[in-house]
Amino acid sequence: LIAHYETTPKEPLNAEIGLAVLHLLNTTTTLRGTISAYLSMLGRKPLALDILYVRADTPLTDLTFPRIHANLNMQAYDTLQTRLQLLSDADYRANSGLCFRSIHGTLNHIYMSDLIWYERLHGIDPSRFDPYWVRPDEEMYASTDSEGIDWEEYISDRAKLDSLTREQQRKWIEYMESVEEAENAYEKGVGRIWLHVINHAFHHRGQIEAVLNRMVLSDGLLGESKQ
Questions:
Q1: pLDDT of 107 above 90
Q2: Nearest CA-CA partner of 41 in 96, 105, 93, 91
Q3: SS3 for 221?
Q4: Residue of 33, 199, 170 lying closest to 103 (CA atoms)
Q5: How many helices (H) and strands (E) does the chain have?
Q6: What pLDDT, on a 0 to 100 scale, did the predictor assign at position 221?
């Protein structure tokens, strides 16, 4: 399905088909994240389901739909935050059995991942984040009885993390609109990289949805039309 992103002058991608592919991708990735979270709550090893769902030999030279995807990503985050406003700070920061312990830890993980890829695309060395990533799984992920995890402390303030995440979402939209020709090695695969960024965010938002479902607060966090 993702091959439909690639268009040719002879056969341009139909807009309705393209949007349908985006909605399908977002929905299934969110559900995989939800399943991963339930397994984590049961004490099982987290599944690395937030992978890059693009064939290695598929160039993404047409950025029309990845640009639309950037806006859908922001809508999904806005919808998520609307639900999260219903939570007390105690529930928001509680050990929810997630890979990164709490909703706050998971949102920090999403934000940091976005920031790393954004900086890499701008030629900035992201090695300062290595302590969070280059380590064994038992140190990276929380257990069901963990009292805290360093992911939660990256941006400890709830409102500040929300503000920074929204700012990063706007930067992604502006960046995707501005990219025309590849200027460095990473930008040459910008469409593929962006799909990974999107999949990653929807996957972990799906994990948060699992927590809200358990709290009987969620009626769907996809941030998209149900039509």
A1: yes
A2: 96
A3: coil
A4: 33
A5: 8, 0
A6: 44
